[in-house]
Design a protein that fits this description.
This protein is α/β, with parallel strands linked by helices. 36% of the residues lie in helices and 18% in strands. It has an 8-stranded parallel sheet with strand order 11-10-9-5-2-1-13-12. A hairpin with a 2-residue loop joins strand 7 and strand 8. Helix 5 packs parallel to helix 6. The relative contact order is 0.08.
């Protein structure tokens, strides 16, 4: 087991978050990286224990056109700032990985500048791919070359050149010795040479125990990159797409099918493919923008944190901010934020509260990091699965419908479960649990040895658990108040006692008594649903179709 097996990542694009200028004038260092130190405490508070931050090194503009791999971008500060920042992260128990932009450099990189100056006589002419001194480009260099993505601003390195390979491996050694980092995210890994990646993996194994290499890969057979010889993990764009479109289209089959295909790709083993799961990042629109129904923020993130893989939150998305990708700019995806503007978010912002609860749950329940995956129930709008490790089974239930849904699913070998997000306890009956999954929500059911046992730690989602306990007390009062509503039960005479014993003696009174009790509980359910948002006709009908006293009591308690 390595640190990254239990990682919950926070992702920062530092030039954006700090509000740095879009173009670098290579002037004196501006110590903007130091302004991110307060974010470290926030990262830890929302249950993250690892940070992916980058790009960080000297560049022309957005950071991916590197000018100097061994110097912190002047817009962010100097190398000491980065050393101190990583040290503070480590002090607070947070691992740090940086962006490794090794597929290409910027035009101001020393090797490319040498080619521009010396042309055919440059010792670096073979550092780049297909340099052609009979060609030209929009910069009027008098030669052409391969680039990345059609942008001549990004000059493609010749990774098969031993000198390039040695240089980049030396950069990794420098980053570890100078900044004490814990891993690297390889930019554009899906176009990196495989022998080059093997050299990087060899260096990673050499520089530090459990040094992690994660690659940016969009599509394809992820096992080509994730194996003992190349990378530890890659970005899970397959799941990213399935998460938002599966909810937008009310099609959990898409998500479940994607998970099964990836799980099979890893040999149907929990340690087969440990992919980097995300709902959004610095290159794609914010998840809150992409969701047709903003309430689906909850099921999307519950799934991201509990399905096989390593979860990651992109800065600001824990607050539910929006960001739309523009045709010629990613600026809205990479905004400057002030942490003080979100000072009470963990307590008052429902998105942040959820993310913090999921982070703590992930760290508490080892089965979510190491457990196998088993699908338990699947419809277009409901999905349940289990993760089991060393005999401990965690059950996840999600619902993207506008109505609550009762699920009965197979459970592990324990007496009861507790909801990590609500604090609600449910007993195991004949190897199953029966739970009410709220509309556009979900729950993570952690095993208890017996129904009286307290959670392993304090109740994870304290505020919601308190609301659940309050609802339980209210529901008991509601049950008492609606047992014999005045309009449903005839008023007792002076010689009658209006209690359940009297009702039992008279069938008419008993029937009216029961109808009134059910009607009152139904109204109690609807009243609590209305507090959570608009109640549709279908939602009301689902309540009125439930005429079972115990089921309605559990429904009231679930709020």
């Amino acid at each position: 087991m390595a640190w990254y097996d239990e990682a919950v990542f926070y992702h920062i694009y530092p030039l954006g978050l700090t509000g740095a200028p879009t173009q670098n004038d290579y002037g004196l260092p501006e110590h903007r990286l130091n302004t991110l130190i307060p974010w470290i405490d926030h990262i830890r508070e929302i249950g993250c224990n690892a940070l992916y931050i980058g790009p960080l090194f000297e560049s022309v503009g957005h950071g991916y056109e590197t000018t100097d791999y061994k110097k912190l971008d002047s817009r962010l500060g100097d190398n000491k700032d980065l050393t101190d920042f990583v040290a503070e992260c480590h002090r607070q128990g947070i691992r740090v990985i940086l962006d490794g932009v090794f597929n290409h450099t910027g035009r101001d990189f020393f090797a490319f500048k040498d080619i521009r100056e010396k042309r055919e006589s440059s010792q670096y002419r073979d550092w780049y791919c297909n340099v052609n001194f009979y060609g030209n480009n929009e910069y009027n260099d008098g030669f052409s070359y391969d680039n990345w993505g059609g942008y001549n601003l990004l000059v493609k390195l010749n990774q098969r050149n031993p000198a390039v390979k040695d240089y980049i491996c030396d950069v990794i050694r420098f980053w570890v010795s100078e900044f004490d980092i814990d891993g690297i995210r390889l930019d554009a890994a899906d176009v990196l040479d495989f022998d080059f990646m093997k050299a990087l993996r060899h260096t990673a194994n050499e520089v530090k125990p459990d040094f992690w290499l994660m690659g940016e890969v969009i599509h394809g057979d992820y096992s080509r990159w994730v194996n003992e010889g190349t990378l530890h993990s890659v970005t899970n764009y397959n799941l990213h797409k399935a998460l938002y479109s599966g909810c937008n289209d009310h099609n959990f089959f898409e998500i479940a099918h994607t998970v099964k295909r990836l799980y099979d790709m890893g040999g149907s083993r929990p340690d087969g493919l440990k992919l980097y799961n995300f709902a959004d990042n610095h290159d794609v629109e914010r998840i809150y923008t992409k969701l047709n129904n903003k309430a689906h923020f909850a099921p999307v993130h519950i799934l991201m944190y509990t399905l096989p893989g390593i979860p990651s939150i992109y800065y600001g998305s824990e607050f539910g901010i929006e960001g739309k990708k523009e045709k010629f700019s990613d600026a809205s995806l990479r905004p400057a934020l002030k942490l003080e503007d979100f000072g009470d978010a963990v307590k008052n912002n429902p998105c942040t509260r959820l993310i913090a609860a999921l982070g703590r749950t992930r760290q508490q329940a080892k089965a979510l990091s190491y457990g196998d995956y088993r699908e338990l129930q699947l419809t277009n709008r409901q999905y349940a699965f289990s993760r089991t490790c060393n005999g401990e089974t965690v059950i996840v239930t999600v619902n993207n419908d506008d109505s609550d849904y009762v699920m009965t699913v197979a459970a592990g070998n324990c007496a009861a479960y507790i909801g990590a997000l609500s604090g609600q306890k449910v007993s195991v009956d004949n190897g199953h649990i029966c739970v009410n999954v709220k509309a556009n929500a979900g729950e993570i059911w952690l095993p208890l040895e017996d129904t009286a046992q307290a959670p392993v730690t304090e109740t994870i989602y304290e505020q919601q658990a308190e609301e659940s306990r309050t609802a339980e007390a209210v529901s008991d009062d509601s049950a008492k108040q609606v047992c014999a509503p005045e309009e449903a039960v005839p008023r007792a005479s002076a010689t009658q006692t209006p209690d359940s014993e009297t009702a039992a003696e008279d069938p008419a009174i008993r029937e009216a008594f029961e109808k009134g009790r059910i009607a009152g509980l139904q109204e109690a359910v609807i009243a609590r649903m209305e507090k959570n948002g608009p109640v549709t006709d279908r939602m009301r009908q689902d309540v009125y179709d439930n005429v079972y006293h115990d089921g309605l009591i559990n429904w009231v308690k679930s709020f």
